[in-house]
Amino acid sequence: MRVLLTGSSGWLGRALAPLLQAQGHEVIGFDPVPSAHTTIVGSVADRALVRAVIADGRVQAIIHGGALHKPHVERHAPDDFIAVNVSGTLNLLAEAVAQGVERFVFTSTTSLMISRRIRAGREGGARRAEWLTEAMQPAPRNIYGVSKLSAEHLCRLYHEQHGLPMVVLRTGRFFPEADDMAHVIRQSDANTKANELLYRRLTVDDAARAHVMALDRAPAIGFDVFIISAPPPFVPDDCEALINDAPRVVARYFPDYPAIYARLGWTMFDSIDRVYDPSHAARRLGFTCRTGFREMLAGLTRGRAAALQRRS
């Protein structure tokens, strides 16, 4: 297929473009920043450019991974998020329908599921971690989350009104940058990313694989939203203990982790406030991440931590 890939110069795009090409797809990269994987330099907020790109390229499928992200909140006005994340998505959807695009994959984020209440770790007055599935009603806490949720609604609307096959992927963390709250986290960046594989992270390689699977399955699925994150080892009954004593819970599932971490001078988070459940993606999309906390531990024992971290 001829696939339009937005965000082709970004962290996901650089992993996804070669994977799509290896699967036999022709990739048209679209990004404001030039790169080896970007054919068209420009913004999805430019409706005329979007129209020209789709028409001239005779695009058959769109993977819309381009966006302003949470790290941009401090540097961009809310208007910028609406222009790129909402209006840009609308531009792509409208032109996709007008020009006969066959399928659409939208990269969303689990970040939109985190309300201020969840960040506080409270449910009905009791402290507990939140077990998050696609069934929950999001109440985003910042303009990034609001803009991505709005774009999800546009995706659903265009599927319902026009029948455009559509898969929305709410991806967990896979960016290489340090946490934007790193100044209050006592763990190193590598330690933090390893811990996050327990409940809210995946590797960029797995994120790219999920998009390829979604592209293939979109016509059969029609429309659906999927959490994409490394499978957690936990169960919902662990939620109270996770927020009060996460190291004890993790040690119950991985008795060898304390010794492995001690050799590296690493520590576990004291508290885990949410767990993303990707089981719906495993059941309906047929996708499961290859790398999780268990694989990370195995890599640490074999001295492959650096290689695994570079792909997180």
Strand and helix map with partners:
Elements: E1 2-6, H1 11-22, E2 26-31, E3 40-41, H2 47-57, E4 61-64, H3 78-98, E5 103-109, H4 116-119, E6 122-123, E7 126-127, E8 130-132, H5 143-162, E9 166-171, H6 189-196, H7 204-221, E10 223-228, H8 239-244, H9 246-253, H10 257-264, E11 274-276, H11 279-285, H12 293-301, H13 305-310
Parallel strand pairs: 1-2, 1-4, 2-3, 4-5, 5-9, 8-11, 9-10
Antiparallel strand pairs: 6-7
InterPro entries: Epimerase_deHydtase, Lipid_A_modif_metabolic_enz, NAD(P)-bd_dom_sf
Pfam families: Epimerase
Protein name: NAD(P)-dependent oxidoreductase
Describe this structure in words.
By secondary structure, the protein is α/β, with parallel strands linked by helices. It has a single domain (2-190, 198-231, 275-290), classed as NAD(P)-binding Rossmann-like Domain (Rossmann fold, 3-Layer(aba) Sandwich). It is 44% helix and 15% strand. The chain has 13 helices and 11 strands. The chain has helices spanning 11-22, 47-57, 78-98, 116-119, 143-162, 189-196, 204-221, 239-244, 246-253, 257-264, 279-285, 293-301, 305-310, and strands at 2-6, 26-31, 40-41, 61-64, 103-109, 122-123, 126-127, 130-132, 166-171, 223-228, 274-276. The strands form 3 sheets. It has a 7-stranded parallel β-sheet, with helices on both faces. A two-stranded antiparallel sheet has the order 6-7. Helix 1 crosses helix 7 (204-221). The longest helix is centred in the first third of the chain and has 21 residues, at 78-98. The radius of gyration is 19 Å and the shape is globular. It starts with a strand and ends with a helix. The mean pLDDT is 92. InterPro entries: Epimerase_deHydtase, Lipid_A_modif_metabolic_enz, NAD(P)-bd_dom_sf. It holds the Pfam family Epimerase.
